[in-house]
Amino acid sequence: MSELELRELQDTEFPIPEDLQNTIAITSLSRLYSWSRRSSLWPMLFGLACCAIEMIGTAASRFDFSRFGMEVMRATPRQADLMIVSGTVTKKMIVPIVRLYNQMPEPKYVLAMGACASGGGPFKEGYSVVSGVDKYIPTDVYVPGCPPTPQALLHGLITLQKLIDGQSLARMDDVPWYGVGPSEPAPVPILGPDIIDPRQMELIRQQAERAALGAGKAAERAALGAGKAAERALPDVIVASNTRGLEAPETVGTAATGVAESEAADGEDPEKARRIAKRLEARARLAARRAAKQGGA
Amino acid sequence: MTEVVAEAKGPEREENLNTAEAGYQSLKERFPDAVSDDAREGYSGILVDATHLPEVATAIRDELGYDYLSSATAVDHLGLEGECLEMVYHAYRTSGGPALVFKAQTDRSAAEIPSVTPVWPGADFQEREAWDLFGIQFPGHPNLKRILLWEGFDGHPLRKDWREPYYEEEHKPFDSRWPGGKVFRAEETNLFGKNVQYPDDFDLGQLADVSDEALYSGLGLGVNVEPLANGSSNGLQTDTIVVNMGPHHPSTHGVFRMVTELRGETIHSLEPVMGYLHRNHEKIGERNAWLHNMPFTDRLDYISSMGNNLGYALAVEQLMSRGARYKAPPYRAEVIRVLMAELTRIVNHLWAVGFLLNDLGAFFTPMLYANNTREKILDVFEAAAGSRLMCNYMRFGGVYKDIPERLRSVANLVNDKIRDLDFMQFLGELVRDAIPRAIDELDDLLTENEILRTRCEGVGILPAETAIAYSTAGPLLRASGVAYDVRRAEPYSIYPDLDFAVCTRPNGDIYDRYLIRIDEMRESVKILKQILPLLEQTAGQEIMPGGKPGAYMPRVPVGEAYGRVENPKGELGYYVVSAGDPKGPQNPWRYHIRATSFINLTVLGTLCQGHKVADVVTILGSIDIVLGEVDR
Ligand code: SF4
To answer: Which of A3, A137, A150, B36 could form a disulfide with A58 if both were Cys (CB 3.0 to 4.6 A apart)?
Structure first.
């Protein structure tokens, strides 16, 4: 261990004699844990799309991320603690991705590399693309870019290291894996007529019921736009997002480098209320535009 | 030791053109009831009555000699003249010349067209794709199931009346984004807060994931111990086991999946499974304006974005050239295009060779050697186009920007100094020195390596006839001894003026597929050396017609076009259709990509039969696929 690292670890008021400062550091268990985790991140050897090419470029000799303690890329999830989601996540692929995530031992981290993994990217509107991997698994760091340059990816990885540095054993919210009892696996989506998130089963059932009552899909769309049905439907979305134990859809897709927002707060949160209002507004706008178009046609 | 076959160029093209016309004529005479001219404005080729397609196709192959089916794809003509679904086929002769285009139409409500796989097995995956995305049935197809989406998916998304969950409008730019610029997030308009929609009559009680059912049902799953074939009772018995590789597997070059059925250690059958990176290029491409699609093409074969750009530009220029005010790309633009295309070829082959060695077990070291030179070429791309990988550099009529004077990159610090180099000097050293040295180095280290030779020689042999029948392209085809290269067979840009050879190798095994990439890199260097003086001679000339940047929303005349280029991985084709109101929104009606990687995989199953699992990995590596192009 280098002198520098020792100094970084030093975390106490307790005086250490001058001549021992190069060999001894006194620190907290929490710091030591975080330090050892952040200094040997083992990413999973796992490429999805174009971003993977830049990830390989980052691993290769010119940029070389082993300088930051992550040279050991593992092909099996059981030996990895960092999943770099490097590319477009499709509906067909999210199923194995969630499984792989569940197979990783804790503590584990997810880095969404590029616009696609963060929020759908250029292919977001595509019918078989998942708009951001965080719709299904919790994500720690988002790296913007299409593709992010190796430098940006390195920056994202260093951001992740900082995030780990900031985690404390004392705060169980930070490090759920040191809590009591087994942790919940992320629910694996199902491929039906479209991809099905098990956490939204109730919502899907309600939609089917509404449809059975005579309101066809088109009618529902119109109603949604008019705002009335939207109000009826919205609480469902919120219920669904609260039960999933992950981030609510409102917080996702902010493709900014840095640490993701933590879990969405409760329904009383004024921030959330504001977002709901914004969403209703957006729907109304869309409906008005559609109506205007149809009227014109 | 390089075996090269130079092909005739120039006058022969004229003759071939005549034979294409003569082909249409003779088909009309032979099948007067079944064959007619495609008389729609802007269209070419012949319409074949669907019920007679098998006979006509056989005649096209056997009597007219069009042995190579390049592309087979569907178009939905909903709302256009004669509302129907149409299959469009482009067949070529491996001896060169233009395409013979024929089409078969079918009713949208009960779409059915006889399969042409008995004539050209290379149509296999393409017909499966047409079934998957358009819902056309192909009687006679051996294995018609979904290929890019999963079994159980609701609907056939490339039909014009199918709408995606985030549907906003038919055409871009969407009102919400431009010119008003009031952006909202698509999630906000979806009931589920994500990119999903379910049919109205969707019954959760019936929910069953059948996506893999069809895949496994045909395989010998479970314990099935059989005595040896000769019936001997020496106690040796074999069992069939099914081994799944991928989509998460380090040897599959991305998210590709192979389901293998093993007898002992030997592959009895192998089925490629794809679609794990299906990103709807084609549906999005129909919503986009013409120019919008250029950056999307970057993301097809994301190792060779410059080549993809070129193919798309050529296809659209073909259409635009029918307009009155069209001007061809200036000479300097063509020179720059070829420069970039050939650099791309080197980038791709370095990558391919590096990864082939990875697949052989030399994990990452050869890759690091190969990547060093590749990074230098990426610097050139970055200086010219602004991006290392996703160059988005070509435009209709030229290129986006002239090559820069300086190669200055903040992103590339060397000992904390920003590099500031003369671009032409950097390029010159690269072409004359660094690249040839890197190729020689790889050649020295690898070609005679004993392990490489033992693992590769005589493994995964692809005979020439099979290679042609399965529509393989690029190095895969040429390593089987077929001297087919679009740059010579149907020349484009300034290739007719350049001196280079079409490399071939006779054996068609993995080793030859490795060698041919080394050969082709050397030929590319030869081209680049001819390009350098041309760049200097044309310095300062315009790079777009009239020196003006191209239109943001170019007007594209009605009709169809098929533009193709010899991309590093093989023939990359774009089939584009323009329809509708010349004053209305300008979008492609159909934007189809003839993806080499996708079609080259058709032969994988056959190629792997009888080999061991470890060989499958190398065979796949030697085909050199990229999933962005396979799944699109
Ligand atoms: S963010 Fe861009 S480069 Fe990365 S996977 Fe998506 S499209 Fe490809």
So the answer is: A150
Task: Give the residue whose CA is nearest to atom 6 of ligand 1.
Answer: A116
Please check the confidence at residue A260 and state whether its pLDDT lies above 50.
no
Mean pLDDT of B114-132: 89
pLDDT band at B9 (very low <50, low <70, confident <90, very high): very low
Q: Are the C-beta atoms of A133 and A253 separated by less than 8 Å?
A: no
Residue B361 Ramachandran class (φ > 0 left, ψ -120 to 50 alpha, else beta):
left
The one-character DSSP state at B241 is E
A147 in contact with ligand 1, CB cutoff 6 A: yes
Does A276 sit in the ligand 1 pocket, CB within 6 Å?
Answer: no
How far off is chain B from A167, nearest CA to CA, in Å? 30
A137: three-class secondary structure by DSSP: coil
Q: What integer is the mean pLDDT of B150-166?
A: 85
Contact of B367 with B588, CB cutoff 8 Å: no
For residue A238, give both structure tokens: 């919120």
Q: What is the dihedral of CA B334, B337, B338, B344, to 10 degrees?
A: 180
Structure tokens at B1: 């030791």
Contact in structure between B115 and B92 (CB atoms under 8 Å): no
φ, ψ at B56 (rounded to 5°): -65, -40
Of the ranges B200-214, B403-417, B422-436, B580-594, the best mean pLDDT one: B422-436
A95: left (phi over 0), alpha (psi -120 to 50) or beta: alpha
What mean pLDDT is reported for chain B? Answer: 83
Instruction: Give the ranges where B364-479 is alpha helix by DSSP (H).
Output: 365-385, 423-429, 435-442, 450-456, 464-469, 475-478
DSSP codes of every residue in B100-131 = EEEEEEE-STT-B----TTT-GGGHHHHHHHH
Name the token pair of B333: 């633009």
Domains in chain B (CATH in brackets) are 2-134 (3.30.460.80), 281-631 (1.10.645.10)
Question: Based on the number of CB atoms within 10 Å of its own CB, is B465 exposed (0-12), middle (13-18) or buried (19 or more)?
Answer: exposed
Structure tokens of B471? 């529509």
Starting at the edge strand found earlier in the chain, the sheet holding B570-578 runs B559-567, B570-578, B588-594
Q: What angle do CA A85, B605, B245 make, to 5 degrees?
A: 35
Largest CA distance in chain A: 85
Q: What's residue A286's pLDDT?
A: 67
Residue of B276, B297, B299, B632 with the most ligand 1 atoms within 8 Å of its CB, for mutation? B299
C-alpha angle A54-A57-A63 in degrees, rounded to nearest 5: 120
* CA gap B421, B529 in Å, rounded: 20
Cis peptide before B173 (omega within 30 of 0): yes
Q: A193 vs B154: CB contact, 8 Å cut-off? A: yes
Q: What is the ipTM of this complex?
A: 0.84
Amino acid at B5: V
Provide mean pLDDT across the span B149-161: 86
Q: Is A132 exposed, middle or buried (0-12, 13-18, 19+ CB in 10 A)?
A: buried
- The percent of residues in chain A predicted with pLDDT above 70, rounded, is 69
Which residue's CA lies nearest to atom 2 of ligand 1?
A146
d(CA B402, CA B384): 7
Q: Atom 8 (ligand 1): residue with closest C-alpha?
A: A50
Identity of the residue numbered B212: D
Which of B385, B384, B390, B398 has its CA nearest to residue B313?
B398
Global pTM value = 0.82
Q: Which atom of ligand 1 is nearest to the CA of A87?
A: 5
Smallest CA–CA distance, residue A112 to chain B, in Å, is: 16
